[in-house]
Design goal:
The complex is a heterodimer of chains A (255) and B (584). With 255 residues, chain A is of the alpha+beta class. In chain A, the strands form 2 sheets. Chain A has a 5-stranded mixed β-sheet, covered by helices on one side. In chain A, strands 6-7 form a two-stranded antiparallel ribbon. In chain A, a hairpin with a 2-residue loop joins strand 6 and strand 7. Chain B has 584 residues and is α/β, with parallel strands linked by helices. Among the domains of chain B are: 110 residues, Flavocytochrome C3, Chain A, domain 1, CATH 3.90.700; 111 residues, Fumarate reductase/succinate dehydrogenase flavoprotein-like, C-terminal domain (Methane Monooxygenase Hydroxylase, Chain G, domain 1, Up-down Bundle), CATH 1.20.58. In chain B, 35% of the residues lie in helices and 22% in strands. Chain B has 16 helices and 20 strands. In chain B, helix 1 packs parallel to helix 4, helix 1 runs parallel beside helix 11 and helix 13 packs antiparallel against helix 14. The chains are: A alpha+beta (255), B alpha/beta (584). Chains A and B meet through helix 1, helix 2 and helix 4 of A and helix 3, helix 4 and helix 10 of B. The structure holds flavin-adenine dinucleotide, iron/sulfur cluster and FE2/S2 (inorganic) cluster. Iron/sulfur cluster binds next to helix 7 of chain A.
Chain lengths: 255, 584
């Protein structure tokens, strides 16, 4: 058994020795219609430990330099889905991205996610996103009498849809999707991921209804498999694969 | 200003709020006001599990669960409430399964169960597998499942509405709830919600500590709103410090990690919990483990150059087990520390985690105006409330249970109350207090900054009222908080706008934290004993003669406007378990 010893402490913590602060520039896309109809880039220079999160940097800017900088956040460790944003052109959670991993030598670009209306700075209108989610009937649908105890489900059946249960509805996938940017009708990957979560749950009996909805509005067919969504997902969900599985289920009506 | 009328208003859309909403929407016209989108609530961060004596994997029963809860709470638990919690746990878990919650399964397809701290078979004989779980994402699954069912039931949400005031009116000498006042983040508009009944489900208040597992948004708004209107807060000195937070960051690593076999070690590699809790070892209750960790650190056996943490060792567990049972927390170690838990131990320290105290309620969720009188139409459930099922120390997995059992109960009770009663007339200028508060902050030209004051508050709380407390440290905190409250009057904000003004809301949240920190420290100073999460080095023993009672703290305002805190006490409800010494 690997018992940690003093020596081992050295290796485990080598990465922790207090690193010197660096000076980094955050170039943030600002927008506040109360002030101006135009969005503009603004640079902030701060001194920060590169092992901190981008969210820590945004807080530092807000708390010490400019209180008007506006963004959503809550949990600060990648669980609540509040702070998806474009960081150097890629959709990321600010609280799950460490500064050292995004090349702080150059200005770090921060802007709101795309495809949803920007309301102020990094805050976008989430209502259309949640509406698409609600449209796929994201709840267990069953028929007949309820059992007195729990419904049985084998560990294998439980595993079948595990990946898509991890979704935190952060919209990083949907707002990275070129089809979603250009097509108001498309449900977007997140809604399909949440449909998948139920379609492949052995306890659910609403698959037909849900597939009908996804079929009707061309819900899944518009996906062009660009894999942006899979790259963007902070929960490591294989989003494109889930969409493919839903497409296949539509064709074969077997799930 | 807009005025809305609903039968039932629920403040908060975490586990407790949404469980209540599912019941109350079926029975009354309900609005849920929440400062976060429901799925952003901190229930989603809960990892390890939800307790219920299902006996799916080994012998168990609710009576053992009741006993463990009472003992875990160091006998400050109201035993009638604990019985309800343990009894209704079984249906609470089965209800969630029927709503679709994807629990982990046994080979036979039943809900699987794992060990957790303080849960034992037959009154402390050995650890028992009582926690129902879904990997280390149990809270996420509960939050998602409840939201899904709110969508199904058509629950009406007002997202990003901050409730900032509780309207209390006196009719015939009785305090009654008339509704709430909320601030809409998107527009800066103030809304009055008149309601026959109001349920607070606004969560905890951990952000007055620096190292904490709590979200930035857990600022005790609900507790502060009620307290400011003369309602008491119960047992606020009892706060839980979870043994295993990521060193310096406070991000939680679930007790389930020790339930799966993880071991705490000091710098010599010694499994030190064997010394402090020979039977339950690493799975002793949280207050015991947190104190043991700090004892190791103080006695020079802490790890790292500054000797300020210990290790959570998972390296002896098979990687497949870590992947299957603890995927998220191992990922946290990789993301935030750059550590591979398969091969390296994880540096940890206790982290401020859970408020045992809060708004006092009875078992129907009705809020108390004093030791016995209820406030008609006012309810509270979840971490904001104090029923009290957790007493001086909450057992792991009992909070996810609490939010479901008492969320459901208060949802039903509030809706039934709404059906039988009429609206209480709104006071004159119902939005006055909030309007004044907002205007004062917007127009202030003071020189104090919110972030600086908050940091000073957090630092004094960490240093003086955490795991170990003495008269002297608590007094230091009381004085510091008083100073910060004075300086708070001179706080100004930079964002003067109406749209998404989070600068303003952070200032208001800080005001709440300051009020609650003062109550906590004042209550702690008066409790000259050690019990559960409240440990006084100058009074290291439990004192059942003088302190087997709940603290009730009231805000008093003198005629000249000076504020003070009045402490009173409430008896503990004891049914069948007489206090014994707590050993693990
Ligand atoms: C990291 C972590 C892990 C945990 N693990 C476990 C576990 O394994 N098992 C267990 O039993 N317990 C666990 N707990 C404890 C448990 O998760 C919480 O106590 C519980 O989820 C609290 O639920 P709640 O519904 O009371 O509050 P929350 O889920 O915090 O919800 C609060 C709600 O109130 C709203 N709100 C707050 N203020 C306002 C306002 N002013 N106006 C309007 N709305 C407002 C918020 O928007 C939110 O919707 C854990 C806690 C943490 C922090
Ligand atoms: S699938 Fe991933 S990226 Fe998309 S909303 Fe869910 S968690 Fe976010
Ligand atoms: S703040 Fe919660 S996911 Fe980033």
């Amino acid at each position: 058994m690997a018992t940690p010893t003093l020596e081992k402490n050295g290796t485990a913590e080598a990465g922790f020795a207090d690193t010197p602060y660096i000076t980094a520039t955050f170039r943030i896309r600002r927008f506040n219609p109360e002030v101006s109809d135009e969005a503009q880039w603004q640079d902030f220079q701060i001194s920060i430990d590169p092992k901190e999160r981008v969210l820590d940097a945004l807080h530092k800017i807000k708390w010490e330099l400019d209180g008007t900088l506006t963004f959503r956040r809550s949990c600060a460790h990648g669980i609540c889905g509040s702070d998806a944003m474009r960081i150097n052109g890629k959709n990321r959670l600010a609280c799950k991205t460490l500064i050292k991993d995004i090349n702080p030598e150059k200005p770090i670009l921060i802007e709101a996610i795309k495809g949803l209306t920007v309301l102020k700075d990094l805050v976008v209108d989430m209502d259309p996103f949640f509406q698409a989610y609600r449209d796929v009937m994201p709840f267990l649908i069953t028929k007949g009498n309820e059992p007195t105890r729990e419904r049985l489900q084998s560990p294998e059946d439980r595993e079948r849809f595990d990946d898509t249960t991890k979704c935190i509805l952060c919209a990083a996938c949907t707002s990275s999707c070129p089809v979603f940017w250009n097509d108001g009708q498309y449900f977007g990957p997140a809604a399909i991921v949440n449909a998948h979560r139920f379609i492949f749950d052995s306890r659910d009996e609403g698959g037909e209804q849900r597939l009908e909805i996804l079929n009707d509005r061309d819900g899944v067919w518009r996906c062009r498999t660009t894999f942006n969504c899979t790259d963007a997902c902070p929960r490591g969900i294989e989003v494109t694969k889930a969409i493919q599985e839903v497409k296949r289920a539509l064709i074969t009506r077997r799930f | 200003m807009q005025i809305h009328k609903y039968d039932t208003v629920i403040v908060g859309a975490g586990g407790a709020g949404m469980r209540a909403a599912i019941e109350s929407t079926k029975r009354s016209r309900t609005a849920v006001l929440t400062k976060l989108y429901p799925t952003r609530s901190h229930t989603g961060a809960a990892q390890g599990g939800m307790a219920a004596a299902l006996a799916n994997v080994e012998e168990d029963n609710w009576e053992w669960h009741t006993f463990d809860t009472i003992k875990g709470g160091d006998y400050l638990v109201d035993q009638d409430a604990a019985e309800i919690l343990a009894k209704e746990a079984i249906d609470a878990v089965l209800d969630l399964e029927k709503m679709g919650l994807p629990f982990g399964r046994t080979p036979e397809g039943k809900i699987d169960q794992r060990r957790f701290g303080g849960h034992s078979r037959n009154h402390g004989e050995a650890p028992v597998r009582r926690a129902c779980y879904s990997g280390d994402r149990t809270g996420h699954m509960i939050l998602q499942t409840l939201y899904q069912n709110c969508v199904k039931e058509g629950v009406e949400f007002f997202n990003e509405f901050y409730v900032l005031d509780q309207l209390v009116v006196e009719e015939d000498g009785v305090k009654k709830s008339a509704g709430v006042v909320a601030y809409e983040l998107a527009t800066g508009e103030i809304h009055v919600f008149q309601a026959k009944s109001v349920i607070y489900a606004s969560g905890g208040t951990g952000k007055f500590f620096k190292v904490t597992s709590n979200a930035h948004t857990l600022t005790g708004d609900g507790q502060a709103a009620c307290y400011r209107r003369g309602l008491p807060l119960e047992d606020m000195e009892f706060f839980q410090f979870h043994p295993t937070g990521i060193w310096r960051m406070g991000i939680l690593l679930t007790e389930g990690a020790r339930g799966e076999g993880g071991i705490l070690r000091n710098k010599d590699g010694e499994r030190f919990m064997e010394k402090y809790a020979p039977v339950m070892k690493d799975l002793a209750s949280r207050d015991v483990v947190s104190r043991s960790i700090y004892t190791e650190i103080r006695e020079g056996r802490g790890c790292g150059p500054e000797g300020d943490h210990v290790y959570l060792d998972l390296t002896h567990l098979p990687p497949e087990q870590l992947d299957a049972k603890l995927p998220d927390i191992t990922e946290f170690a990789r993301t935030y520390l750059g550590i591979e838990p398969y091969t390296d131990p994880i540096p940890i320290q206790p982290t401020a985690h859970y408020a045992m105290g809060g708004i006092p309620t009875n078992v129907e969720g009705e809020v108390l105006a004093d030791n016995t009188t209820v406030v008609p139409g006012l309810y509270a459930a979840g971490e904001v409330a104090c029923v009290s099922v957790h007493g001086a120390n909450r057992l792991g997995t009992n909070s996810l249970l609490d939010i479901n059992v008492f969320g459901r109960r208060s949802g039903i009770a509030a809706a039934e109350y709404s059906a039988k009663n009429d609206f209480v007339a709104l006071p004159e200028n119902p939005a006055q207090l909030v309007q004044d508060q907002v205007e004062r902050l917007r127009n202030s030209t003071g020189t104090e900054r919110v972030a600086a004051l908050r940091l000073e508050l957090q630092e004094t709380m960490d240093a003086n009222v955490m795991v170990f407390r003495t008269e002297q440290t608590i007094k230091t905190a009381v004085d510091k908080i008083a100073e910060l409250r004075r300086r708070y009057l001179d706080v100004s904000i930079q964002d003067k706008g109406k749209r998404f003004n989070t600068d303003l809301l952070e200032a208001i949240e800080l005001g709440n934290l300051l009020d609650l920190a003062e109550v906590m420290a004042t209550s702690a100073l008066a409790r000259k004993e050690s019990r559960g999460g409240h440990y006084r080095e100058d009074y290291p023993n439990r004192d059942d003669v003088n302190f087997m009672r709940h603290t009730m703290a009231y805000r008093e305002v003198a005629d000249d406007g000076t504020e003070s805190i009045r402490l009173d006490y409430k008896p503990v409800v004891t049914t069948r378990y007489q206090p014994m010494e707590r050993k693990y």
